[in-house]
Amino acid sequence: MNTTADINKEKLIAEKGFLDIEVDPTLDLFAEIEKLKKEKKALLIAHYYQEPDIQDVADFIGDSLGLSQKAASTDADMIVFAGVHFMAETAKILNPGKKVLLPDLNAGCSLANSAPPELFKAFKDKHPDHIVITYINCSAEIKALSDIICTSSNAQKIIESLPADQPIIFAPDRNLGAYLSKKTGRNMVLWNGSCQVHEIFSLEKITKLKIRYPKAKVIAHPECEEPVLRMADFIGSTAGLLKFTRENPADTFIVVTENGILHQMQKASPEKTFIPAPPENSCACNDCPYMKLNTLEKLYLCMKYELPEIRMDEKLRLAAKKPIDRMLEISAKYGL
Ligand code: 13P
Ligand code: SF4
User: Fold this and answer.
1) pLDDT, tens digit, for every residue of 235-277?
2) Residues 6 or more apart in contact with residue 22 via CB below 8 angstroms
């Protein structure tokens, strides 16, 4: 049973992180994390946008669909999620009996933040005959208000699995929604949300790069805005983009998504050149500030102290699980 001191410590770490805990700089964190994984029978999973060191120590790296499938099927005692909050929350929804840890509880998502549940509920109520398909980048509360969850890997198939005359609300990403409307020919009602990282790319600078490297393939994530997507030779989820760079014979790629994915691209095809698409100004805004809150040190401390932990109200969990289960069922049916 947790003592009051344990509960206070957990609250403090959840709010402020591990600020007051020093990590011995001589420690080999890779070896320590490996040791903790074995000791605690923990599965360490990481999204492609995590920093390279974290990707290198993870048991599994994936896109949002791959990570939720991995979380759903694991027999580990503990899931350590190197990603953002909605991802770890999804793992907890699927595994109520397991401890799910996230190295920094402040690792949110601008897209998830763009859909406050009370406003979304009012929006949904205005369209009572619509099915709600929601991108996985949203809170558990929004999932609970949805009929089917999707990711960028399976969204098109999920939409196409519904009868052609079924009206659809798509949320929260207006760019992905517009892209899917065009792809499927379905006139969906879109929630007006977006990802701050994927909206920052400069069309002008990508055009200049394309002129300088005429043989380069432009590859983009569907969370980007329409003018950028129009320039792309290939559009896909992070896993889809990685696969494309592995299989396509081109030797240069202009990559229009978060920087973290370049690590696996370069590892898989060391002879090829990967150019990160530049943002509008000279900031490092194509690094997701939420994803990059996780560090190797925080990951080590999180595994050592088993904090911060994702906790969830059971009624909310059950309501949020239904549309995720539907997503997993449809994905399995289509072999995704
Ligand atoms: P995928 O990895 O599913 O393509 O999602 C990208 C993303 O924005 C995750 O936050
Ligand atoms: Fe959210 Fe965008 Fe960061 Fe992905 S890249 S976690 S969608 S803010």
Assistant:
1) 999 999 999 999 999 999 999 999 999 999 999 999 999 999 9
2) none
Spell out the domains of the chain, with CATH numbers in brackets.
4-109+291-312 (3.40.50.10800), 111-195+317-333 (3.40.50.10800), 203-276 (3.40.50.10800)
Count of Cβ atoms closer than 10 Å to residue 314 Cβ: 8
Q: What is the per-residue pLDDT for 20?
A: 66
Contact 64, 152 (CB under 8 A): yes
Structure tokens at 33: 């994390």
Alpha-carbon distances of 10 from 3, 80, 211, 306, 323, rounded to whole Å = 11, 16, 53, 9, 30
- What pLDDT digit, counting tens, does each position of 102-124 carry? 999 999 999 999 999 999 999 99
Whether this prediction's pTM lies above 0.70 is answered by: yes
Q: Which residue out of 64, 87, 194, 198 has the highest number of ligand 2 atoms within 8 Å of its CB and is therefore the one to mutate?
A: 198
Say which residues have a Cβ less than 8 Å from residue 261's Cβ, sequence separation at least 6: 48, 49, 238, 241, 242, 255
Rounded distance from Cα 7 to ligand 1 centre (Å): 33
How far apart are alpha carbons 249 and 264 in whole angstroms? 17
Is the Cα dihedral 212, 213, 214, 216 positive or negative? negative
Lining ligand 2 with CB less than 6 A are 84, 109-111, 137, 195-197, 258, 288, 290-291
